[in-house]
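SEVERITY: medium
COMPONENT: batch folding queue
REPORTER: lab tech (J.R.)

DESCRIPTION
The queue accepted two submissions in a row. Attaching both inputs and their returned structure tokens so the on-call engineer can compare them side by side.

ATTACHMENT 1
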Amino acid sequence: MHHLTAWSAHDTGVIISCALALLVIVVAISLAKLPPFLAILLGAIVFSATTGLDMAKAIASFQAGAGHLLGDSGLIIALGALLGGMVAGSGAADRLVTALLSPGGRPLSARALPWCVAVAAMLVGLPLFFEVGLVIMLPLVLGVARTARQPVLRIAIPALAGMTVLHALVPPHPGPLIAISALHASLGTTLLLGLAIAVPAVVLAGPVYGNFLSTRPEYRTISTAASANFSSPGNVRQERQPSLAAAAMTILLPVALMLARTASELCLPRNGMAAHILNTVGEPFMALLLSVFFAVIVLGWLSRQPRRETGRTLHDSLPPLAVLLLTIGAGGGLKQVLLSGGIAGTISKIAESSSLPLVVLAWLIAVCLRQATGSATVATSTTAGLMAPLLATMGLSSPQTSLVALSIGAGSVFFCHVNDAGFWMVHELFGLTLKQTLMVWSVLQTIVSLTGLALCSAIWVFLAS
């Protein structure tokens, strides 16, 4: 790394201003109940004012950062929502989960249920946002727990773990894709490493933690009374549900296309026609676009779903994105304002003077931003933007860059609490108290985060040795 100038009063001021901005964001979201978009914008203004950054320049930086991030990722996120809408609305997710939990029509043993629920949640979570996946899985979780006479949380926690790990670590979810783009990481390498890290994280945060928590008396009797009338949007007439093969192919198609691109880079001549085709269809935007058209044809038209109903499913998938895209854009704007205020140079000095590996430093920054904003995607996008200038000077290998991206994803889910939409969703749907929600959701997320950090650090040390 090239030599950096000594620590200055300006660097101290930048750190203090950044901490103050994050505090303002936390207060604005948790106490003032402002939308995250407005809270993040307010935090950016506070940072600009306290660092002496010209307000006109700060506003221009915010707009440029938001526009750049949404230009890179907005369409990909929209395509992901369309794919998720088709998977949910057609009954494909219901079909797949039911088949996994009752292979050959025979119910699984009580000991195997949490493990199979975790696998089912990971498959359902591949193309779906966490909130949509939870809505689909909830009636199935309740039905399985009731039929098998198991504590609800013993079945529910593996489902929560399977979906949240995929959301944090595995493309095509927005956070990982944004980190890959910002850090110029290899999509295939990040996908493979993300899956390798995701499996042990799901095991520890899902079946292992679920079995532990569900044995405690105050959690064993949870009956989810608040969600008794909650139904899945995927409940469609049986005769119009897609086949199991069609459901599995649709859910796995985008990941398969992305992995095919990586395989072509490793095994095929770069100038060949096959490599060109696989490189094109495996690019995230194209992989999701092809998967959406595949879903429309296979899950919609060929499953005898009226074309008007298919169109309505696609149309209804997009409006909920407005809040998410605004929040993500605000995160990109905040990142650009922080860069304009000199935060990148300060982070570089911290990295140079500390003995922390880059994966740990990136994880810590993501943790701070997640605690402030309540959004894993905003924490991921902002941290990746802050780390990108530093990584560009270091000549890291492809796996190392991917590990930094994954450590950011792991940090983005550390101890999610009252400023997190998922926290309140779990609280309401499972009829939990505040303390119970902290134990079920916040601790689960922390296990995922620490497992991700530990595995990223272990692989980092192995590569450096």
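ATTACHMENT 2
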Amino acid sequence: MEDLLGKEWDIHPAGGATGEAYFAKFEDKRLFLKRNSSPFLAVLSAEGIVPKLVWTKRLENGDVITAQHWLDGRELKPIDMKNPNVAKLLNKIHSSKELLDMLMRIGKAPLMPQELLSELVNTPYFVQASQDNHLINQAIQSLHSSIDQIDYSEYVVCHCDMNHNNWLLTDQDQLFLIDWDGAMVADPAIDIGMLLYSYIPELEWEEWMSHYGLTLDDSLRNRMKWYVIYQTILSIQWFDQKQLIQQRRYAEHYLTTLLG
């Protein structure tokens, strides 16, 4: 990074799982740098969904470095996810034709539930788990039996990781959704379900949806639950493979509650 900006810049890692993000500072200039970030970052910037993109540079090895404004602020806390502005920004994302067109142009096909389920049941881990683990088997059967109830064709750009740590509130009260590496074209119920089930008491779902701009009907409820069950099954696999026993047990308990 020093070769790119110059030795006068103070550059240090910004954390994160990939280790590809950095903060850079020189006098009154401050940048957030990332290697090989989402290819539609420019559209996200233009839409005001992420901090402003300053420049993009391609290195000789083919890597692409992006620089965005580094803004003072904080990640949202779980309680902050109730804020109406979170619902409004998510609706803006799901409603954006520009984002959808860009993601389709770079080859993202719609994420179909039938394909997700087929991939799940044919993964060696779950082939074995469905035989050894009654809970996993029950959850997969639930996905099979309810898949006809989640037909939906109005696919949108979904962020696919509604963790509160991915929401940035600046000191000027600007709200952004960052870390778009896992974005997909999919049913908006993927994002909405993950957010509501994780952060919003069920008695407050209808109020939150009123800020989003949709009525919470049976179709949306069914679709949200289907995707949350699917995502919870995947999280059990991830915790198990990482040998995070306590987290896996919590996910299993949560899955039991979902199956009710």
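NOTES FROM REPORTER
The chain has a mean pLDDT of 90.
No errors were logged for either attachment.
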